[in-house]
Specification:
nine-stranded mixed beta sheet
């Protein structure tokens, strides 16, 4: 059985006791069962009973939540319409009695018969104007107090006789604070009971508490389950860290491979660029003179050239370079005259044959081998132009310039404003280098000499098998312009036209004639600077020309490069025309066919 600490009512269950306390004491008008004193809260009433009536046995005070400095509002009951404020209590007549911040009643005027309190060290001597329904209980308790030796209270208005006045026990000065809340207790026993209630509440809360995972939204029933759940998280995190580290290693490996690939590509580009520089003579190894000297030095080292001959040839080289004229060591004269004699007597399967003006063949030497084909073809063209009276006014020199001299003449043409883009490509410098030249450099030099030049660009194949029939047709039209009579041309036409400069990727040659066969096919006659003087000399002999001529015949199936360019010299420019050509060369463009 559970007994109420206030009204001594007995109940069976703890839930019933809580309901009784709530309905009978917390939500109703709180009055002292031993006197007529009313309280603002249950905690204040318990404090009043333990301090003002110490003669009663100390009982457990229920939920001792005596909050410092405030009182709980009245939740309901008979006096719910009377306002209650913090720091005051209400007597039986409805008047407010001020209280201190700790919840203890302060001393008030008792002349009108109301209950009063004089602080924690005193208790009220009497109570007046009590309710009639509580008189018997109050009188009985007072008689019990009188039997214990208390004095009679003169101010107690009751029909029951009372004993002598009650003795005022002195309460301890020391106040005890709850370590778990703000409650201040005057007795260690009350504090112990209060703390036990805290512990019971914590135990019930812990039993009903759910354990939430700090790493996800999962809820566990106990701490051990939560620990196992968190360990699973940690294991997964370790696995993720392992996967992350493997991803990092993979990313690092890929980055290193990419950097290595880029370094290899950069190295390859540098090597290819050096090869191109070497191929085009821009690697700083020296020009015609330096290469010629090294060639003779190697010949001496191999025993092919005597030291005395080396010095003689070196002196001749210096003299040729100083004069600017070619020494003629690689020149072969009379090739066109020999071809003319051959076609007049021997060839029977050709309908027509066109030959250019007399042209000397120039082959590569030890000083320009591998890069001098463009200069050698230019020498062939100039040798033919010098033999023609139409170009005598603009070609004062009767000698063919040497390769170093041709390089100097092209640089002078650039300085005059011809082909600025080509000049920038070579950094305005050709002398002392092994730079290759092409159609645009030939055009610039001819223009600077006041020779009208054209560049024809056969930029793509126009026949089956990647052939260029348009190129052959254009060459035929070029040679046919010399015979415009209505009569049928003879089988051999010796023209007064200079040869054509034919350029393709990596090499150049000179077109000195054209054959038209009985079946209508065309065949070019090409002089190649790559052919040695001895091979070209076979064209001069009647015994070997029939065999050697096969080397200079080129049918359409023999010319299968993707692109060909042809430079043609077509007369002399006036001074004004030359200036216009210089201005036009700033955006130099070839005539594209087709």
């Amino acid at each position: 059985m559970l007994t109420c600490d206030i009204c001594r009512e007995e109940v069976m269950l703890e839930e019933d006791m809580k309901t009784h306390l709530l309905l009978s004491h917390l939500e109703s008008d709180l009055r002292c069962p031993l006197c007529c004193r009313s309280a603002a809260s249950y905690d204040e009433l318990c404090f009043h009973v333990t301090s003002a009536h110490p003669e009663e046995p100390q009982r457990a005070q229920g939920p001792d939540h005596l909050t410092s400095g405030c009182s709980a509002p009245n939740a309901g009951g008979g006096d719910s319409k009377r306002p209650r404020t913090s720091g005051s209590t209400w007597d039986t007549d409805g008047e407010a009695t001020p209280t201190c911040s700790s919840g203890r009643p302060t001393q008030t005027d008792t002349s009108d018969g109301r209950c009063s309190s004089r602080g924690p060290e005193t208790r009220p001597e009497s109570a007046g104007s009590c309710n009639e329904d509580r008189n018997e209980t109050t009188s009985e308790q007072l008689r019990s107090s009188s039997r214990k030796g208390d004095a009679n209270s003169p101010n107690l208005t009751s029909t029951v006789p009372v004993g002598p006045p009650l003795t005022r026990p002195v309460l301890p000065e020391r106040l005890l604070s709850c370590p778990m809340c703000d409650l201040v207790c005057s007795s260690s026993f009350i504090l112990q009971e209060h703390v036990e209630l805290h512990l019971q509440d914590q135990g019930s809360d812990e039993g009903a508490r759910s354990f939430k995972c700090p790493m996800c939204s999962s809820v566990c029933s106990d701490s051990s389950s939560l620990q196992e759940h968190v360990e699973l998280h940690l294991d997964q995190g370790a696995a993720v860290d392992g996967a992350g580290s493997s991803d990092l290693r993979l990313a690092t490996q890929l980055q290193q491979e990419e950097q290595r690939r880029r370094r290899e590509e950069a190295q390859q580009e540098r090597e290819e660029f050096r090869k191109l520089q070497k191929q085009f003579g821009l690697d700083g190894r020296g020009g015609y003179r330096r290469q010629m000297e090294r060639t003779m030095e190697r010949a001496v080292a191999r025993g092919l050239l005597a030291p005395a001959d080396f010095h003689c040839k070196r002196a001749e080289l210096m003299e040729s370079l100083s004069s600017g004229a070619d020494d003629g060591g690689t020149r072969t004269q009379g090739v066109l005259r020999s071809l003319s004699d051959f076609y007049q007597t021997e060839v029977r399967d050709c309908v027509h044959v066109w030959l250019s003006a007399d042209t000397d063949h120039y082959c590569s030497s030890g000083g320009d081998k591998g890069w001098g084909c463009g200069y050698r073809n230019l020498q062939m063209m100039l040798s033919s132009l010098q033999s023609l009276d139409a170009y005598t006014p603009v070609l004062q020199e009767r000698t063919v310039p040497s390769i170093p001299r041709l390089q100097s003449m092209i640089e002078e043409a650039w300085k005059e404003g011809l082909d600025p883009h080509g000049a920038s490509h070579f950094d305005q410098r050709l002398q002392g280098t092994r730079a290759w030249i092409g159609a645009t450099e030939i055009y610039s030099l001819l223009t600077s000499l006041r020779i009208r030049a054209r560049i024809m660009d056969f930029h793509q194949p126009t026949g089956p098998g990647d052939t260029h029939p348009c190129l052959f047709d254009w060459v035929k039209q070029y040679f046919c312009q010399s015979s415009r009579s209505s009569r049928l041309p003879p089988r051999l036409i010796q023209t007064s036209l200079p040869p054509l400069y034919l350029q393709h990727q990596g090499h150049s040659r000179s077109i000195v004639g054209l054959e038209q066969r009985k079946n209508g096919s065309l065949c070019l006659l090409l002089l190649d600077p790559g052919s040695s003087s001895s091979d070209t000399g076979k064209l001069l002999s009647r015994d070997t020309i029939s065999t050697a001529i096969r080397q200079i015949r080129k049918f359409p199936r023999s010319l299968k490069n993707k692109q060909y360019q042809v430079v043609a010299a077509e007369g002399v420019l006036s001074a004004d025309e030359r200036q216009i050509s210089i201005l036009n060369s700033r955006t130099l463009r070839a005539e594209r066919i087709p």
